[in-house]
Amino acid sequence: MSDDRESVPVRQLRLVVEAEDYEAALAFYRDALGLPEQAAFSNEGDARVVILDVGRATLEIANPAHKRYIDEVEVGRQVAPKIRVAFEVDDAQSTTGRLVAAGAEQVAPPTLTPWQSLNARLDAPAGLHITVFQETLTEDERRSLNGFGTETGSSAES
Predict the structure, then answer these.
(1) What is the CATH number of domain 5-143?
(2) Which helix (H) or strand (E) holds 70?
(3) What pTM was estimated for this model as a whole?
(4) Which of 23, 68, 79, 87 is 20 to 30 A from 121 via CA?
(5) pLDDT over 60 (residue 3)
């Protein structure tokens, strides 16, 4: 991505999630996962929102066949709803353990994928199905893998 922010038509991806148990979701995502609080707002009637910084955001578009493939590789069966949130972490094993201790349900343990990332699946607070993933190769190393590329160049990775 270019450092020239003037050429970028979208400045930020913000995923807004309604959490029935706001306090539990906040404790999970801010405290257990470690997402820093960027801002918080409150209004009348106990209306509250917190914006957590997740670093760089991407939007991954997968066709149904690839979504099924990812589920099969990471979990061994179809489990993900249409929307799954993925967080890149430094240590998938310890993060998974910490998140399970904080209330997530482990769907699949950290599993090495064909694209050489270590991915775990969890059902997390606020009704989100999440992946925590750890890259084991650099982006340049992944580019040499079969199936990794871009839609305009070669097979796309997910």
Answers:
(1) 3.10.180.10
(2) helix 64-74
(3) 0.84
(4) 23
(5) no
